[in-house]
Design brief:
With 364 residues, the protein is of the alpha/beta class. It has helices at residues 48-65, 78-90, 110-113, 134-137, 147-155, 198-209, 249-254, 259-265, 321-332, 344-347, and strands at 33-39, 70-75, 98-102, 116-119, 125-131, 159-166, 172-174, 179-183, 213-217, 237-240, 243-246, 277-280, 306-307, 311-316, 337-342, 358-361. β14 (311-316), α9 and β15 form a beta-alpha-beta unit.
Length: 364
Amino acid sequence: MLTALAFAVSAMSGANAEQPTPVGHMPDETSPHEATWLQWPHHHTYGVEKRDRIESTWVQMTQALVASEKAHLIVYDAAEQKRVRAKLTSAKVPLDNVSFLIRRTDDVWVRDNGPIFVYDNDDNLKITDWSFNGWGKDAPYRKDQQVPATIASLLSMARVDLNKYVIEGGAIEVDGRGVLMATRSSILEPKRNPGMSQAQMESVLGKQLGVSKFIWLDGAPGGLDDVTDKHIDGFARFGDPRTIVTLSREDLNYWGLSAADIDELYRASDVDGNAYRFVQLPLTERSVVTTYGYDIGNKGSYANFYVGNKVVLIPEYKDPNDAVAKEILQRVYPGRTVVGIDVRNLYRHGGMIHCVTQQQPAKR
């Protein structure tokens, strides 16, 4: 779901600060995937109308992904599996690379409630299972919270139980070389991890994800109808280990970032102290209007894209800036095909493409 941030590198984030010995390493999103996980929309929480309005986004994503990686679809029950299979068949989506996991869920935001895959020190994949509390108990979450453990069992993969800490996948960006970017408002109290200091959280994240440097922005609670309290993946992404894809200063201000946050973001440097290359995507030219005529009242972000093995899925709003953003992102990923996915109806509920996808890295 959506996001925002004031950059501060604490004492432990410094180049010479003593770091905990890592037990895991989270690769960046451009690293090879085994699969992408999707939680399929259903009617059990929010009804048939919402499901039917957003479901085509999942069909489009699955269609684009299966040519180069597996699509693991989490469906509510056996009846939903039958229905979704028929939906994909009707859309002529090849099913050879599609698998189904039956698991009751509350919603669709697998980026936030799903597993975060890391490599251990022997290059074996394992699942870090963090607590999910519905973005500070703002939405149903108890079924979604069980998804990582279910996936670990299905894959017979080691699971690290980190449920004493609340971390959503959309709240963190890693460059794969030791840097993590996040907003305090979406990780620290009052809604998550009460009583934990930033330094304590850095210690946990550094150890579990192989991170030694932190780019912290303050962010802000709420804003732009943002239940996530400014997840980073709505406006600033690691396009690759040396590139940050973000928005212009003006658009970051529109997105709810302070002037201090914007300055510090653009001063960000990698683990070696080298400045990142910055690429700017526009916001939509107009306020986003759903397929059924509802004016959301906000512009849409293209930064919430998802990088697959051979495709990059970019949010599409039927806006003049769709083509502009697609062309910019295609230059960032010349070896992949950028595919627009219509997210107008999904955006009304608070998120875009990255929010509803979760990568499973390839085995080494």
